[in-house]
Protein 1
Amino acid sequence: MRQDDPVLGHLGLAVPDLDATRAYYDRLMPLVGFEPFFATDGEFSYRPAGGKPGTYLFFYPAPEPGRYRRNRAGLQHLAFTVPTRSAVRAVHSLAVELGSSVVHEPQEFPDYPPPYFATFWLDPNGFMLEAVCHHDRD
């Protein structure tokens, strides 16, 4: 990928509890290939680990009270591509350890172009997250 190739630069998510969200994502993001980028009292962010190209993820305090609802117009889910099926299972294990509500256990999804092995769960804010491997390797 060249520096001027199109890529989604970053996503910004507003959350009701910045500290709780950061504690959750600080545990999750290394497993899906991201590292901390920067943090202030009013935001924090992650970037692809090791200087790899990709989308940065920023979190901000929600300017209005209320909880996110994924079934309304807006963000449907965020998917993180991981290199192996065992990485999908490791992310699932961490999600369970963190008390996340699991939507789909790690499995193949024949509805999508194969190979597609993934797990889906909800973060503390109600955002649906996915870890997916597009390889047969374990």
Protein 2
Amino acid sequence: MSAPPSAKEPSAKDPSPKPAAPKTGDVRLPSARGAEVGRRIGVGLMYGLWKPRVLGAWRVPATGPVILAVNHSHGIDGPMVIGVAPRASHFLVKKEAFVGPVGSFMVATGQLAVDRSIADRTAITQALGVLERGGVLGIFPEGTRGDGDFASLRSGLAYFAVRSGAPIVPVAVLGSSERPGRLIKALPPLRSRVDVVFGDPFEAGDGSGRRTRKALDEATLRIQDRLTGHLENARRLTGR
């Protein structure tokens, strides 16, 4: 499976989506069974092409809604986490990636297409629906592939976390793309080690239940602090 390109949070023009979202009954939710099939396929692909070293997977809650917040510097970050996470997950991915056979496969395995040019209410509703039914939502909070250092976060992650009440589990994917030997740009060399480090779950809100713009801005700052701290710890732990 080629790596899903990064997906910006569901509001591109307005970084803070409106607190109200359509009812999930109006939109078809992604397949939970398909996501589990995708996870099993991902296990084979990721361990066949690279050498994942997974640390802290036990920190992901075994049941209930969870948001995986993943840094994004490699093209394989999404498929890697889908493959090595202990639970099946649904990632928000930019709609431009859903083309041809790859797009059909991504839909079949429960991934979510998001239109980054608008406040995509369908994608927002689907993502909230995943959490409402106790599933795992994957997000690249930086919005696009870059340095993968959580330096610039969008508020979509805070919106989903505050509105759903789901805990956030930070995930650091640390590879070796800076080394020579890559056959494909933005991918680590084949059979190289890729570290995936899961952090402790945390709540984004302040306990007040507020969903105002100010509350989301405050939550975004709290999230950025926790994600940055996790990434620094992951780097120390792995030596990357």
